[in-house]
Write a structure and sequence with these properties.
It comes from Micromonospora mirobrigensis. One of its GO terms (molecular function) is metal ion binding. This is TIGR03086 family protein. This protein has 199 residues and is mostly helical. It has a domain of 133 residues: dinb family like domain (Four Helix Bundle (Hemerythrin (Met), subunit A), Up-down Bundle), CATH 1.20.120.450. It is built from 6 helices and 2 strands; from the N terminus they run H-H-H-E-E-H-H-H. Strands 1-2 form a two-stranded antiparallel ribbon. A hairpin with an 8-residue loop joins strand 1 and strand 2. Helix 2 packs parallel to helix 3, helix 2 runs antiparallel to helix 4 and helix 5 packs parallel to helix 6. It is globular. The N and C termini lie far apart (37 Å).
Length: 199
């Protein structure tokens, strides 16, 4: 059974809030490890995903409108922090692991168990936290036990031709999936080069 990763998810999300709070307007055009996305596009995506998962956790989220990415407003950090608090609060309900989440981004009518939905959100924010940190040239540190909990989630993400699609969530795996550093291993599993932007 997939473990209940809500505590780890909250820790990862709060780490991203601290990073995003350091973003300044001049930073928004910076490149990120997400191909084709500058930092503004990445933050808009991260904010929207919090809102979508929060909606699904509370029995909504069946419409793609709940997941739609919007242009950043005048205070992206505040908007992001608000969205993060929304998803943390939504995930805190005791029965969330047993609820069914609608995930229309995966396809019309797609529904998954709450534990699995939280695991998807968790791995996204471990990885996107690193993306933001690399874009800003800042360190990204998460507790070792959290990273070890994230490794099997990353390992469970299917690899294959689907990762080459234009809208794929992750690039194909990189060879260093046996790296002893858990964060580097996670990054390789989702197609990120730990040394980005260098080869």
């Amino acid at each position: 059974m997939i473990p209940d990763l809500r505590a780890q998810d909250e820790t990862a999300v709060r780490a991203t809030v601290a990073l995003v709070d350091r973003v300044r307007p001049d930073d928004l055009g910076r490149p990120t490890p997400c191909a084709g996305w500058d930092l503004a596009a990445l933050l808009a995506h991260m904010t929207a995903q919090h809102c979508g998962f929060a909606a699904s956790a509370t029995g909504r989220g069946t419409s793609l409108a709940e997941w739609r990415t919007h242009p950043l407003g005048d205070d992206p950090a505040a908007e992001y922090a608000d969205a993060a608090e929304q998803v943390i609060a939504a995930f805190a309900a005791p029965d969330v692991p047993e609820r069914t989440f609608a995930l229309p981004e995966f396809g019309a009518g797609v529904r998954v168990a709450g534990r699995q939905a939280v695991s998807f959100h968790f791995i996204d924010y471990v990885v996107h936290g690193w993306d933001v940190a690399r874009s800003l040239d800042l360190p990204f540190t998460l507790p070792a036990e959290l990273l070890h909990a994230a490794v099997p989630v990353a390992e469970a993400i299917p690899d294959g031709p689907g990762r080459l699609a234009p809208d794929a969530a992750f690039a194909p795996r990189l060879p260093a999936t046996d790296d002893p550093d858990p964060l580097n291993r996670i990054l390789a599993l989702v197609g990120r080069a730990p040394t980005w932007p260098h080869a």
